[in-house]
Amino acid sequence: MDNISNTEKSQILIDALPYIQKYSDKIVVVKYGGNAMTNKELKDAVMTDIVLLSLVGIKVVLVHGGGPEINDMLKRLNIESRFINGLRYTDKDAIDVVKMVLAGKVNKELVQLLAQHGGSAVGLCGIDGKMLVAEKKLTDDGQDLGYVGEITEVNAKPILDALANGNVPVIATVATDDDGNTYNINADTAAARIAAELGAENLILMTDIAGLLRDKNDVNTLIPKVNVSEVPYLKMQGIVSGGMIPKIDCCVEAVRRGVRGAVIIDGRVPHSILIEILSNEGIGTQFV
Q: Does the model's pTM come out above 0.85?
């Protein structure tokens, strides 16, 4: 910003004002993952964005995964990963590692990083206050995936308590059931269900792609806005396919459950959260 004049700086702030007013005292749920979680420059940009939004009165909830860190720890402990229909089977040893890495290492590092950027954060996981209650998830053909869960209930109180105290809730996506079992939960799915329970203004899924493309090999074919009723047609056309299907299904579910909008943004772009929230053009693909 050193090469921008004071007049230009003031204009940037004036342009952002309507969006600050729109989101003031509203909840925005950010699912944090992909390259933005491993690249230091991008990680710092995300933390700066979240702190800035919090300071202007926007209530940010950060939901995170940690797949690469889990894989690394499983390798170090010589716990072999096996997959059923492309989905990881999570046995008792593996779920202990998931809980340790997600709720312990990754979660607390993010809380610490937000503090270093001048924010105030509280680390939570789905087990705290029975925030996320789950049951065993099976594959489409009925096969057991071990301790992989499907959310049956969301208790928003621990999140709302953190927000009421001026903190950013940082949530690791492990859950529990009534028998005390721990389950690994897909972070996109968890973010969508949490956003719906909170009545969030927006759900932001950070990914390593520009958004939904008409031609997956051409970033110039980005579709900026999609009505959720169009999604089945886009699937039939093959525009929504492969790894995009579960992400877009999460956006659709969030909107149908009452979230005002859900957006898939490119986390490889520095400050992509600010561009999405505080500018006219936004970034990525929004589902309404």
A: yes
